[in-house]
Design a protein that fits this description.
alpha+beta; four-stranded antiparallel sheet; 4 strands
Length: about 120
């Protein structure tokens, strides 16, 4: 098994709806991130998948999110929802499982590992 990696960035605005578990209440107000996104596509040893195919599928999904308030436009306030959304939609385009990691801030990131 091998993995194709594609790394890019995504500029987005979001906010998290307040709830008891939310410690950082500043997240309740709209704020912007310039985040690194890493897409990982597992392929079998005998398979060929062009890097450009992965890039095109990724950029198509990210273009729809870029420079938008994704909480308002896509109901993706939480990073957990965002990585899952990106992974599932790229995976549907490529017809295979896809894992996605987002480095949302310098200190924090979130990974979605597909179990398809």
């Amino acid at each position: 098994m091998k993995n194709i990696h594609y790394t890019t960035s995504l500029n987005f605005t979001h906010f998290i709806n307040d709830r008891d578990e939310l410690v950082d209440k500043a997240c309740c107000t709209p704020h912007t991130h310039e985040s690194e996104i890493r897409v990982v596509v597992p392929i079998k040893d005998y398979e060929f998948l062009d890097f450009k195919t992965v890039k095109k599928a990724t950029e198509k999904i990210l273009d729809d999110l870029s420079d938008k308030n994704i909480t308002e436009t896509h109901n993706l306030g939480e990073t957990e929802k965002l990585v899952e959304y990106i992974a599932i939609n790229i995976g549907m385009d490529l017809d295979r499982r896809v894992n996605v990691y987002i480095q949302e801030t310098k200190k924090y990131g979130m990974e979605y590992v597909s179990n398809q």
